[in-house]
User: Which sequence fits this backbone?
């Protein structure tokens, strides 16, 4: 059993530590949880719950924020 | 520069229960750099500023999003669903935006044609209906079709946003009659969104009696975006004031301005 799993992060396959929470995932990416919105398998995970949700193999995670737009 | 006309009392500009002073809203896209964007937004006098929802660039997570440059306490951030081609996508983006943002307002776009970026009215209505049920205040980007505008109002949209001309085209107000008709027939605010190219376009648009204008490319793609933002601010005020003042009737013949009496023999 390897200690990493593959997930799809922002549309790209990525190896992450097995059992990692979304909050830990953000930390590993040096992302401030207050500055992004996390969508886990098409469901929005609100900030207080980020530490409770663990990613599983094949999960789709989207990290979005506001950019310039019209 | 003081431009307020104290003799004219304008009605407040209220959308979805929130009152604003400026009738000019601006986007934050396509600027050559964030510093120019911030200065142009400030020069425009806008209070409502639009932003888009996109993936974080994971290779450059140190590069902060637009909120790093725009103070959310100073500006009312209006998230859009730009780029969405289906109602389902637009609803998804709107939900993400509400989670990221500071209010329940969304500028709803459902694009039906990639060349013209014209709205898909059917998708727009479907998305608006879902979002309104979820408590969103929907500002719907639509075409200059009266019936579509009426349906969007019936669906409960907080504002209807007919285009002046296609997004980013700078072609100006192509159909003043339709925009005027929409304004006359709707109870909710009508804010013209997209297509304004220069100050005269903005002025002419406001002279139709609409409640406001949203623009982005006209500023971002100007040679001097900050100066153009200032010009647009003046144009929107001028057009609004001219509308309130009431223009003179058009005549096919000349009418002298100086008295005919008292002329020399």
Assistant:
């Amino acid at each position: 059993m390897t200690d990493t799993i593959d997930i799809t992060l922002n549309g790209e396959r990525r190896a992450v530590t097995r059992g990692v929470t979304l909050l830990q995932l953000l930390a590993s990416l040096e992302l401030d949880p207050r500055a992004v919105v996390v969508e886990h398998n098409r469901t929005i995970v609100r900030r207080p719950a980020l530490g409770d949700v663990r990613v599983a193999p094949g999960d789709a995670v989207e990290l979005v924020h506001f950019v310039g737009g019209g | 520069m003081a431009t307020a006309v104290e003799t004219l009392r304008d009605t407040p500009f209220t959308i979805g229960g929130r009152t604003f002073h400026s009738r000019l809203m601006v986007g934050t896209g396509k600027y050559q750099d964030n510093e120019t964007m911030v200065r142009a937004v400030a020069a425009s006098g806008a209070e409502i500023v639009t932003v888009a929802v996109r993936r974080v660039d994971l290779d450059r997570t140190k590069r902060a999003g637009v909120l790093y440059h725009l103070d959310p306490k100073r500006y009312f951030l209006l998230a859009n669903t730009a780029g969405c081609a289906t109602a389902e996508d637009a609803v998804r983006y709107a939900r993400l935006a509400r989670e990221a943002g500071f209010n329940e307002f969304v500028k709803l776009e459902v694009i039906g044609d990639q060349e013209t970026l014209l709205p898909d009215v059917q998708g727009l209505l479907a998305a608006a209906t879902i979002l309104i049920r979820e408590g969103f205040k929907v500002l719907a980007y639509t075409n200059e079709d009266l019936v579509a505008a009426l349906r969007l109002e019936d669906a409960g949209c907080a504002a209807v946003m007919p285009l002046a001309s296609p997004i980013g085209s700078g072609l100006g107000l192509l159909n003043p009659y339709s925009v005027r008709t929409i304004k006359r027939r709707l109870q909710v605010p009508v804010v013209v969104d997209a297509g304004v190219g220069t100050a005269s376009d903005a002025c002419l648009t406001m002279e139709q009696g609409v409640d406001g204008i949203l623009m982005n490319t006209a500023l971002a793609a100007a040679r001097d975006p900050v100066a153009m933002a200032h010009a647009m601010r003046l144009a929107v005020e001028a057009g609004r004031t001219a509308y309130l003042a009431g223009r003179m009737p058009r005549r096919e013949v000349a009418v002298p301005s100086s008295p005919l009496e008292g002329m020399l023999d």
